[in-house]
Structure formats: structure tokens, C-alpha cells
Amino acid sequence: MLTRAAIDRVVTAALEEDAPWGDLTSETLIPADATARAELIAREIGVFSGAAVFRAAFTLTDPTIDVDIRVADGAEFVPGEVLAVVTGPARAVLTAERIGLNFVQRMSGIATLTSRYVAAVAHTGARIVDTRKTTPGLRAIERQAVRDGGGHNHRFSLSDAVMAKDNHLAVLAASGLPLTQALESAIARLPHTTHVEVEVDRLDQIDAVLAAGVDTIMLDNFSLDDLRAGVEKIAGSVVVEASGGVTLDTVRAIAETGVDVISVGALTHSAPSLDLGLDIRIRTT
After folding, report:
1. Residues 241, 217: Cα–Cα separation, whole Å
2. Which residue is catalytic, options 37, 70, 98, 132?
3. Is 199 considered catalytic here?
4. Hey, which end of the chain has fewer CB within 10 Å, N or C?
5. Is 147 a known active-site residue?
6. Residue 88: in which H helix or E strand, if any?
7. Exactly one of 37, 70, 127, 133 is catalytic; which is it?
């Protein structure tokens, strides 16, 4: 999902935003022949994510910059650990430093938060997944960070699967057809390879949705007792997803109800950036 083309597109846009006509400060103050060595240092415990994006921030600024990544995506690190070393022309290193840091701090923050959710449900069969609540334009990198944290991805975009939520069901109801028949009619127009998920917010909706032959049922904002009842009613016939206001304090109990998937918007919309620093030493001749 996170292709080189996607990385280049996102990083190029960020560099153009940050230095549209060059880095005036570095070009004014730093000698053209000066070189720099910069160490990416962890200042707190976390899970690393964003190696390729961090590297691209520097190499797209100047291809002669060398970026030595010292830890793998998905690896845990501790304060004081050197995560990467950057060497090259000082002006270019200084120009790229903030963009490189912004991406790796953001991605490592998402990976770290995701890893905590994954750890909380590790004793169950539940899978932690993200949602489309991502930063516009940055979905591919944020979802890579979720995977680096041990989580999984939901559908990437509106084009990837059918997911009927409450507003969609309201439109179907306006057709006058019973819910099962309306869903069956819609599914009949789809290729056989298309995954179909339907959201319900009441237990009494489950039977009609099951009868339509969907692939996944999302139990949205259900109580723990209703989640257990929903899992029992569905009885393994389709994938069961729990969603709605999931937090680190609640995710363990939700997983223990027996659901297959727990979608967590907070993985991307509420993850804090991790505290990482780039310590730079400049050499002049």
C-alpha cells in the first residue's frame, strides 16, 4: 500500500510547502561546502515507523545525503537510542530536517499507540484495525504506521468495499423494501469478489442483515452485554466487528466478548507524535 510513488508524492508536497523558494536561513548562514552529521535520537519509549519516509525527506532534498536507518519499522526502542544517522551537505540536511522529523514522529506515535491496543487484546482472537479517520492526503503513511504497530487495516477507501452504515440503511428503507430484500437486491449487482459489510446499532437488526448474505456485520456502539449477545446470535457465520468510542480502557473487555475485529479511529486521529530529536553537528573546511 505504501509505494515509493506514494512516498515521493507526499514528501515532495511537504518539502514544497516548507521551502517553496529554498531555505533562506541555511543558504544565508551556512557555507556551501559545509557538511553535517545528524543523529535521530529517541527521547521516550516507542515503536519505530517511517524509515522510508524519513529517508525520502533527505534524499529528495539532495540525493547525495546518506541516511543510515539503525532500527527496523515495527521495532521497539528506548530513550537515548540512535534510530538513524544522516550525513551530507549541511544546507540540505538542515532544509529537510523538520519534514523528516514531522513524518517519523507522527508515524512512530501511531505505531506506538497501536501497539498498546494490540497488546491489550493479545490474549483474545480479536484483530485491531484502523478506520478512514486519517489526515487527508496522509492515509497511506498513517496506515503503514498502524501495521508497524502490529495492527491491521480496514478498507483503504470508499472504492474498496461496500460498507452500509446507518445513513445508507435509511436510504434503503425509503425504497419500501424490507431490509433483507433491499440488501439482497444491492448485493446482486456487485461482482462476486466484493466484500460487503453492514453496520447495525440494535440487536433486532442482525437477523435481517444475516439473511441477506453479507460478509461482515459491524456492531456499532453496543454495550458489552449486547456485544456478547450479538456474537452468540451470529454464531461465526460472518465476521463480527465492534466499533464506536473504543479506548485503551475499554478495548480489552470488548475483545473478550468474542468479536473478530475492533475498529479504532483513535489510532490515527488521536495518536500523539513521539518525542524524537535530530541532533546535528556541522563541519566546515
Report:
1. 6
2. 98
3. yes
4. C
5. no
6. strand 82-89
7. 133
User: Which residue type sits at 96?
Assistant: A
Of the residues 97, 199, 241, 260, only one is catalytic, namely 199
Indicate which residue of 220, 226, 256, 275 is catalytic.
220
pLDDT of residue 93: 98
The active-site residue out of 37, 165, 233, 252 is: 165
- Residue 175 reports pLDDT greater than 90: no
Judge contact between 188 and 162, C-beta under 8 A: no
Q: Which of 7, 83, 78 is nearest to 39 (CA)?
A: 83
189 contact partners, CB below 8 Å, separation of at least 6 = none
Cα–Cα distance measured from residue 70 to residue 182, given in angstroms and rounded to the nearest whole number = 55
Instruction: Look up 233 and say whether it is catalytic.
Output: no
Banded pLDDT at 274 (limits 50, 70, 90): very high
Cβ distance 111 to 48 under 8 Å? yes
| Sign of the torsion formed by the C-alpha atoms of 169, 171, 173 and 178 | negative
Residue in this structure with the C-alpha cell 475492533, named with its chain if needed: 262
Q: What does the mean pLDDT of the chain come to?
A: 96
